[in-house]
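Write out this protein's structure.
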Amino acid sequence: MDLRGKASGRGAYLDPDPGCLERGLAEGALARALEIDIDQVTADRLRVELAAAAKERRPSA
């Protein structure tokens, strides 16, 4: 996850909502945007990284 949007290489914008990630994975939109196949290991890693990024953006009080 690149929260600043500054990393080089191919990327895709994704709302930090787990439902958005799940739709992108299920419908294949994320794989098409990144021009890669997303296997189960990668999908699981994306879920973990998205959760961590969401916490970083919205730290608990």
